[in-house]
Amino acid sequence: MRYFLIVISLLVSLFTSCSDGDGCYESVDTLLVASFSVNEFKPVNTLVVNGIDRTDVGDTLVSDNASAVSKRYPLPLSLTSDSTGLVIKLNGSKDTLYIRHTMAINFISENCGFAPNYVIKGFRYTKGIDSVKITDATVNPKSIEKKTNDQNITIYFSAAAH
Length: 162
Known about the structure:
This protein has 162 residues and is mainly β. It is built from one helix and ten strands. The protein has one domain. The chain has one helix spanning 2-17; strands at residues 31-37, 47-51, 60-64, 72-76, 83-90, 93-109, 113-125, 129-134, 138-139, 153-157. The protein has a six-stranded antiparallel β-sheet, with no helix packed on it. The protein has a four-stranded mixed β-sheet with strand order 4-1-10-8, with no helix packed on it. The N and C termini lie far apart (80 Å).
């Protein structure tokens, strides 16, 4: 009987020590929100985005064949460098975009840990990209919660090239 009471006591303490109150309920994923546009009226029929030198199966960041004038896409930024390179294949044309940024690691909570926060500093891109507009230079875990027509950057492509 004494062993039975010890086992019951251990089970009760095990189940009461595990509670959902210690979980992480905040996002620690930091993603840049980007939209792509050829012009206001020409749809983006095919969009594929990869990191520089990342063309293996599973390395594709975006693969979208649905026609849309403008969609928003979450993209990761580099944790190890002050720039992120992206290869963008849009409607059959291939361009490269380098995003310069700074990064700071911020403490979220004891249960969630840390998350990177970025500030976009500038861009370098190939000739098929007309321009890149920064709407919000701050990229943090809350960026993905932006409203429907809001993003961190918009990438405009020259109509002649696409």
